[in-house]
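Recap for those who missed Tuesday's class. We walked through two folding examples back to back. For each one, the amino acid string is listed first and its predicted structure tokens come directly after. Nothing is annotated here on purpose, so try labeling regions yourself before you check the end of the notes.
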Amino acid sequence: MGQYRASGETGQSPTLGWHRICMLSEAIISNNLLRESFMIRAGFSISFGLDELADQQHSNPKKPLEVPVQEVREPPIDILEEAGFTLILAELPGITKKDIKLTLNDDLLTISAARGGKRYYKEVLLSGPHSRNQLRFSCNNGILEIRAYQP
């Protein structure tokens, strides 16, 4: 019976082709591998995709794997239709009025805010077209209140 090695003959990163995976599976099922279990290196892994991150982890296994993440949160909102205006309430913890950017294109209101490591983004579809000068907003204790007045 041949040896099954996870790292291949050249000692490169431990990736296996489907053919070798099938051979390993067949050997395990037929119980042949149990008799020759001393030939398999302990601690190998099979990975698919993200080859650069896998190679980074295998080159220095003591260093924790770092995946850069840019977290943009979507704030919870309430939309209330009042007489003469639409009231939009959004929860943006840690954000002040100067950190908020509002963009209005016809009936699409875009809310974006950033402060420190916190970033928020939300698109809100209004009931009808509005203009920028019809918007009024305030932010107190992370609660954004937007009033979009009817034309």
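Example two. Treat it independently of the first, because the proteins are unrelated.
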Amino acid sequence: MLVSRKFLAAVALTVTGALAACGGGAAPSAAPVSSAAAPASPAGSAAAPASATAASKPAAAASGAASASAKPAASGAAAASGAAASGKVITLGISQLFPHPVLDTYRKGFTDGLAAEGFADGKNLKVDYQNSQGDINAAKTIADKFVSDKDDLIFCITTPSCLAASKSTTTIPIIFGYVTDPVAAGIVKDAQHPGGNITGVTALNRVTDQLKLMKEIMPNVKNVGTVWNPGEANSRVLVASMKQDAAANGYTIVEATASSSGEVPTAAKSLVGKVDAIFITGDNTAQAALPAIIKLGEDNKIPVFTSDYSSVKQGAVATYNFLEDDLGKQTAAMTARVLKGEKPGDIPVEGPKNFKVIVNPGAAAKMGLTIPDSVMKKADVVIQ
């Protein structure tokens, strides 16, 4: 799903200013979209295709994180625990920055996971799902609404939404999700001892392992293109990792930058004739225009690799990563601990635990590539 230019400009502003102006600037032009019902089903199912195996990969090291506030969150955690113990309906505010199959699948896994933990929407849980449609000022408005409503817990998805939530309350428990590096973003300070009212689960990609898989599929690759927005903090981390891997393994990264999704097709086109393959990180700007990059890959027989499962389902060749549904359930398990009485600040930040080799041989064929049998045999998920 494409995201508006307004959103991507807002993301760039977020990174360069570390969302210091999250509550300032012009008022959002559109009110956030809300729904009192359970979140809608994601555009792509997180269930593995029939050809997928059940093999799992080693756990990822947790990305660092800690509380952005030194104030204790005992009162908020106690309130959430008390609500659960008394049988009272718990109010859960969910703030998502923009609609996207990856994030929607993650959120669905989260709510499904909460239900499995005994917290079901419409029974003992009331979910207030809000989507800011890419407007960072609206994300702050949403966070303030949750505080005004005295929600028992806030679950925020993506860095801008979580920065907004962290600036709105130091007492209501906050669980963050789908944040690449919460320490670099300024959400928290320490992974093992978050303190305060915030903890969560990171979504830091294993870029080195993803590039290793790409090189197994294309052993003669020499020049790898990437489209990214330098204004996104998470992308700066990921592209730096790409460059380090390239320097260590004898290939070159060719960069094409874009500050909005509208600029992505032109940026991607500039790579034609210069690269053997294209690798797209978790960059929000590039991901928003991924269909255009995939089409360019098909038209010019340049294999496109990406960082997440949902993008491989859309037509990229392969990746090595977690499934969004699994990560959502992992985040739900952490949230249940808080709802049962633990303080967020006492729970270390976690990283993804289950990584899988995910391949799409049909997509590879459209880009003039055959995935080697050695890779097919070890694939955990094969998209047909």
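Answers for example two:
Residues 207-321+356-382 form a domain with the Rossmann fold fold (CATH 3.40.50.2300).
Confidence is low (pLDDT under 50) at residues 1-74.
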